[in-house]
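QUALITY CONTROL LOG
STEP: pairwise intake check
CHECKER ROLE: data steward
CRITERIA: each record must contain a sequence immediately followed by its structure tokens, with no blank fields

ENTRY 1 OF 2
RESULT FIELD BELOW
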Amino acid sequence: MMRNLKKIHISLLSFILIVLVFGTVTYAWLSLSLINNIDGLTLTASSGDELELSFDGIEYYSVLPSSPLEGSVDGIRLYDVTSIDGINFQTGGLREVGVAVPNEHYLSFDLWIRTSQAERDIFLINDVSKEMKFGDKRNGTYFVSKGVSWRSPHTFFNGPLIEDTVQAGDIGVYYGHDAIRISIIELQDENNPYDQRDAEELRTYLYDPSGNPNRGYGSPVGAFSYFFQRTLIYQYLPTQYPPTSYRLSEMDPHNPYQALDNESLVATLQKTDNKDIKNRTYYSGKVRINIWVEGWDADAFDAIDKDQIQIQLQFKAARRAL
């Protein structure tokens, strides 16, 4: 199996606009080949003035500097991996199943969030992906890729309808953002004595930004069908599925600090001993953000080789829905 052993250099500029370049793919996660590399990573704060962000829980910024991430993700190569919960990751497929390593096989970093405002529930909001094209910049959360023109070497079934069959020799444009997943894991902040929550009280949010459950985890079309046609090896589809969300929470149009639902509520901030310049108490929380290519996704195959994708995440402090 071919491997891309070239060191990948990552350019870190500021918070949460992420540019990924997909690398060598053989046939899908089922073959566990290298599927993508990070070519450049730009992080810019998208939280608004009411939130402050930190990579270490000590130094907080409205706009994060790049330097804290450089050492942890420099040279990362992302493999197509899989996770049933957004917390634990595995390699697998046609090679021995093993534990996937953060910042070797997928991107993972911790983020502290704090505010002295009245709202203390943190939401991922405002996915504007469908309103954008690659290269655009705007406020909001988005997952937008450039797309790759790809000629299929095999006939395979790529959708729910017979006309979705891709014939050998057909040329189409395929998008890497369709195979991306993100999980946001709420963690107990061990440095905050007021955070005494048990693990059962902490939240996990796993998001498929494609918004299409029919082409999600373990779909029998796309990569699964292509893998069989290319190798003539049958793999059983998974029988357990991750608790995946395909949408973000909505805010009340008459009160932007009131959530209408708690779908993408990712953290609840806890009291601290720290004060802002107006002597107001800071409330803070800690999350772990994982970004990966889901190998059991219908779009995780050769077609997205070398694609480029931009990812931006927008967080908001608001009151949860009742």
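ENTRY 2 OF 2
RESULT FIELD BELOW
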Amino acid sequence: MDINDIIKPENLVYTKPRLMNDNAMHYCPGCSHGVIHKLIAEVIDEMGMEEKTIGVAPVGCAVFAYNYLDIDWEEAAHGRAPALATAIKRLNPDRMVFTYQGDGDLAAIGTAETIHAANRGENIVIVFVNNGIYGMTGGQMAPTTLVGMATATCPYGRNVELNGHPLKISNLLAQLEGTCLVTRQSVQSVAAVRKTKKMLRKAFENSMAGKGTSVVEVVSACASGWKMTPSKANKWMEENMFPFYPLGDLKNID
């Protein structure tokens, strides 16, 4: 068979999203960031918004998103992405603006910015990657770390009496008047990937329709931080993360 026959449209199974460049990803094997990047790139492209999208990436593994998606980006100080996104969207209401944040960034140092932007109902999308740990800086305990989960700063497991309870930040955001969509998804299976992409599309459409703040939490694995193989990390996530952070819509206003 000729190579030209193989690449005919009817024979094409998969192609790299057009908005993802050729830079080699630095993420660890089994990391969810690459899949989430792919979905965001596909949604922006399918909406025809590549020239009008502005992403905001703060500190953490999430910051490197600007290195892989060929759209306009702004880098925010640690935790301040929703505040910066607010300014960008208000000054450029025709732009599709989103933040891309990890749990240590969004639910710790950025709690105030996140809650108040959502409470105001800013027309932005917040993509929240929750792997229950500070992945980039050495695997320390995050606000989302599960009870009993061992990290670099709680090697014997998170202790409620000492460390408090894990923070279900999306549940809090769903209670705010300014949010129109708060959903918790994942990307560890084909079905999960499809559902996450669907909710990302809805979130971006909400922002352009002026409906308020949309939050897409993606419960993710951090194989390196959890000291597991990628396959074991996914299984551990399903058995431990999902019961505490159940998947599904927490708020969805049409």
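INTAKE CHECK: passed for both entries
DESCRIPTIVE NOTE, ENTRY 2: The chain has one domain: 28-252.
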